[in-house]
Amino acid sequence: MGRPFDFDNFVQTAGDAIVAAAPDGTIVFWNAAAERIFGYKPTEALGRSLDLIIPERFRERHWQGYRQVMTTGQTRYGADVLRVPAVHKDGRPLSIGFTVTLMYSVEQEIDAIVAVIRDETGRWQEEQALRKRVAEL
């Protein structure tokens, strides 16, 4: 058998953001890629609401879905990628894609929801430019 797998190192150095939030939406984990994508250092994000990265106009819809997942324990975004707008610390818009997994306590209560997030802003901008070009033709 090879060397033991260093899971903590993997999570911290993963190329995709890994963000965990408590059932109330408070950020409880924020890796280095989350800092790179969203601009917030872990010390700025931890303990804050997910509203930190959710554009204001989408917050109500986000929290409706979030509460439903916390109540039912079910989400289709465990396997299906959800693509949504987000916002960087400096205010610029982002386009992200993510999947989630629910983490349970020993008592089978939801402890956290963990999202693996990829910045898809470049892809989204390319698609918008292509749509514009097709419309012009």
Keywords:
137 residues; alpha+beta; five-stranded antiparallel beta sheet; 5 helices
Any idea what the shape is? globular
Order of helices and strands: HEEHHHEEEH
| Radius of gyration of CA atoms, rounded to a whole number | 17 Å
Poorly predicted tracts of residues: none
| Number of DSSP strand runs | 5
The level of helicity is 25-40%
Count of DSSP H/I helices? 5
Terminal CA distance reads 59 Å
Structural class: alpha+beta
Biggest sheet, spatial arrangement of strands: 2-1-5-4-3
Mean pLDDT: 90
Beta content: 25-35%
Please summarize the sheet with the most strands: 5 strands, antiparallel
Structural summary, described in words:
This protein has 137 residues and is α+β, with helices and mostly antiparallel strands. Helix content is 35%, strand content 27%. It has five helices and five strands; from the N terminus they run αββαααβββα. Strands 2-1-5-4-3 form a five-stranded antiparallel β-sheet. A hairpin with a 5-residue loop joins β3 (82-87) and β4 (93-104). The N and C termini lie far apart (59 Å). The model has no long low-confidence stretch (mean pLDDT 90).
